[in-house]
Amino acid sequence: MAVLPVLPQHDIHEKIVEEAIEAVLSTVDLQAVLERTGRLLNHRFGQTRVAIHRLFPDAPGRAQVALVSDPLHPGARLGEWFELSGSIAGEALASKQPVVVDPIDPDRPRFREETWLAGLGYGSLVSFPLLFEDQALGVLNIAHPPREGLLDCCFQVARQVAHLVAIALHNSLMVDEVQRLNRLLDRENRLLKDELRQIKRDARYVAESPAMQAVLERVRLVAPSQTTVLVRGETGTGKEGLARMVHDLSPRFNAPFVTVNLGALPDTLIESELFGHEKGAFTGAARRRPGKFEQAEGGTIFLDEVGDAPPSVQVRLLRVLQERELQRVGGTESLKVDVRVVAATNRDLEAMVAGGTFRQDLYYRLSVFPLQLPPLRDRREEIRALASYFLTREAALMHRKAPLVPEAAWGALASYPWPGNVRELENFVQRALILSPGPELRLPELPSPAAAADAAPRAEQPAGPPRRFDEEMRDLLSRALAASEGRIYGAQGAAALLGLKPSTLQGKLKKYGVAAP
Known about the structure:
By secondary structure, this protein is of the alpha/beta class. The protein contains 20 helices and 13 strands. Helix 11 (311-323) packs across helix 13.
């Protein structure tokens, strides 16, 4: 019969520590760690009673029983609380040092555990404080039967095991904190989603005329698909709002909706803005930067004023639409993208295709499903509903009650041609509300019919053969600046006159080389 070698005491202690390390590191489940530790000490130290008690910040002066491993007296109740005062655990925590009672003297006990442990048949007791970076997390108590030689057989090893248990307790606290923060984050995400849904519900897209109802019906038809949509209409008719509705009614409604105004970006930045760039692609490119297409992954990208895209961008856009992939500026790697494209323009793309300034293949790719927004002057029956909506919304933002609108004011609003369309009406209502602190709305002076007619789109006026688009655009911008005396911002500025955002107008001025007089 083979005889197993007897390991030296030092090797046995190292083996116990290795097993304890494995027990602590093999799982983040605290209860599993404690139970494995108890079984390990019972196995190595004989008939040993192991108890682990936890401290909690919200229960000062008390501890909770987290583990009792007692082979002689099974059935100990976990989860019980006890007072630390007068206990060996309390002494170990106060001194932050192990406390040894060897032998236990039930007749003259130092701690209240001694009497009942002696009754259970134990003769010695040690309590190790469980410390992590000087923070007390609990205690490890070990009791031995008489004549087992507590100090000789297990004190040093148990001290090392206690340190490992303290690490396990600390890790458990960290896991609990991460889980708490995750629950808090989930709750905040739910609240944010609820808030966004409420914002979407509040942001009505007013459409009461037969013409707009027909447009919305087409939106409902195309939204569930992945089809590229081209929204057409004059400036200020609400093209971005319609594009957002296509997104909100699609299966992508929980994914990003990213807007890019191509008319407001300098030609040199459009490619980088849309497709991103690699580090060192150009001067100032200090790091890799994802473009708007990558930011819209899984969602929708809205390309406003797509007719202003320069030829180089048109080529890249065509590739994205055809191949569903792109290359960052300065890069060679092709990246797959899952993005739905909704484009918008107030330009005559057919004329641009005929003139060679817009790619025919890109035009066909963009106009798979066109949506034509009628100007506000062709749907005057919506003016009252739109103005009421803007008035209520702006009044709520100002924390005041919406004023009453006299019938004469409604008549004035309905008779004005609104060359800037819905955006002009929105800005006008906001200005009227600011100028009407009382209970009744007072309208600012509207431009004369002649001025409004002059500001209306040129397409309404008979004209001879058109000039090149760039020439027409420079002429329009120059006339707008002259009419506004060089002002861009404000109610009488060129941006308001043209129904554009000031930033959009500044981009066009730079693009077409028009300077203020």
